[in-house]
Amino acid sequence: MKNTTMLKRLFKIFVCAVSLGALIAPAAIAADITDVGYMDQAALASLPVFVNANRELAAYNAQLNAQFTAQMKAAKTDAQRQSIQLSFQQRFSDKQRELIGPLFTRAQLAIASVSAAHDLGVVVDKRIVIYGGTDITPEVTKLFLSSQAIAPPTATPPPAAIGFVDQTVLDSLPRVKTANDAMAKFVAAQRKTYAPQLLAAKGDKVKQQTIYQQYQQSLTDEQKKLLQPLVTATKNATAAVARQKNLILVIDRADVIYGGTDITKDVQSALSK
Amino acid sequence: MPFPSRALALAFGLAGLVATSACGPNVHSATVRGIGYVRMDAVVKHHPLYGQLKQLDDAIAAINLAAAAPHKPLTAAQIAAQTAILRREMADAQARTGKILAQKQTEYSKREGEAVAAALVAAKVPGAGRFAAAQMSQASAAQARSAMQAAGKDFMDYQQSVIAQGNAAGAVVARQLQEQAGQKIRAKASQLQQNETDLSLQLSQQSAATRLSLKMRLGNLALDTATRKKLQDQLAAIHANDAKILAAQQQRDRATLAAYQTKVEGQTRAAIASALATINAQTRSKIESERNQVGAQIRSLGPPSLPPNLPSGVKATIAQLQQQYTAQFRADAQSTIAQYEATSSDLERQFAALHGADVGATGKAAAELASLQAQRADLYDKMLAQIRSEADRIAKAQGFSTVFTNITAAAGGYDMTNELIKDVEGLHE
Q1: ipTM over 0.85
Q2: B141-156 per-position pLDDT tens digit
Q3: Which residues on chain A are in Cβ contact (under 8 Å) with B411?
Q4: How does DSSP classify residue A254?
Q5: In B, residues 48-67, which contact A (CB 8 Å cutoff)?
Q6: pLDDT value of residue A26
Q7: Are A26 and B413 a contacting pair at CB < 8 A?
Q8: Is B341 within a domain?
Q9: Number of domains chain B is built from
């Protein structure tokens, strides 16, 4: 009898606890995002084929540098110097395309093929994943090193809940660029002011420390004034666009290897308003 | 366990599970969907080793700041003196590297030779004993090596002297040809100038009578203003006409001179190039001949030649040994070369700094900077690894599918930063 009463009481506690949990948990339960893959790009870059190609490119660059210096010395006008510069840049790019281009294309195809096989919506760089995700590095490396031809995937990656923005594009927006230029000018001016003071205080550690702290503080203050409002505005605009597009997170394009949803243009236009 | 106790444990377990899910984040909600993120910069600031990291950052920034200070302008003599020191250091670094590489090469060649000899003996190749004996007589090999080095040095000296002679001869020829070209151009300029003087004289003679007549009439004080002006205008027109003809001629002459100068300079360049090519060919031929002679000398001192008609298996073994020792030598030499490159790059930056370029820290400051940067990278990696491991544990416990760091913005997901900070702060204790 005593046992039955106790059981009844325990059942009531259990039901209450479950009801409480259900009350607290949000009504909408969506499926977890599991289509995130990651890759160790450094591991791929350290494969002998890449290392050798890069070594060859570096040797070519060293050879080019010697010729470049000699030609620049002989140049008499700015126009000649500019033309030399362009010509050497072109030669370097051509060599880079010739040596690295085919390897890069094959690596991209291998990544796309493995991602498609796993139905991944986005593949990011390993550095930005702390937990979870699917590591596709071994499979991509194996496919890349195999002798088989890799066909391009027949379909585009599925829509991903992870978006990305091209930070370099956002940095080139006129007001961001103006602020960055102003900050660079400010840093240069502060260096000009504080560097001689720091040098003059050689041997006096306390004084040096004070000067350095003043210098750092001046930079921090200016950064807060010039850049912080823009950073906040960009973050808010990015988050707003992400919400509109039902994205969960937004990362930098530089960290995206494959797939993902590009919202750079939307953020750009939101910031230009 | 009696039944009520088991039921009690089950009920508490379930209640605990529900309570946990109610207290922790609902990782499966529509806004989170199993995704978490960490603001790593914020967490790093709470790591027990952050103080050390900050100190390293400050020290690095302070060195960079001090390096940006404008240095006292040096006098030409000071620049020359410091340049001489830098050149000496560069030459020392080259010599040191060359010596180390030569030692390594000798060492690896010796090991390779011994391995090949052992392979030949093991395969019972006829003549292997002779090869091995020759290989083993390292006393004579050492003598041969020093003789080879001496021969190599003599050749380098000879090469440098021949190149220097060639360069000097080339410079003399170039100077002579340039002087000849200068003379030709000056002669042409002088001829054109003479023509212009002649033309000027001719023009003034042609209009001399008219100008004289006009000047005489203008000398008459009784002239009315209108007539005086008319005569003055006529005189001015004659002057203007003469000046115009002369200016046109001068312009034509300038163009002629420029074209002539271009032509003569082109011819001179071609003549210099041809002369230099001849001198260079002679230099190359002299060097080539000396190289062949020294090469023959070195070959006679070099390692014994392999017995002829080796079986293919032995050949393959030898090729593999050669490949193996070459690869080992390359790998070993790489660190020496890297060291030399670092020294050379620093010295080059010091050269540039001497001539006023802003190249950042150099010399001792650069070495200190590099050491601090390495320490910083090492410390940061350790801190990051610890934070990642803690994040991994929390993420697993809370049932996340993926956790990111370095995100740009979040419209959803769960921000694990504060929990991770508490956890990392706990590492203090």
Answers
A1: no
A2: 556 666 666 666 676 6
A3: 239-240, 242-243, 247-250
A4: G
A5: 58, 61-62, 65-67
A6: 41
A7: no
A8: no
A9: 1
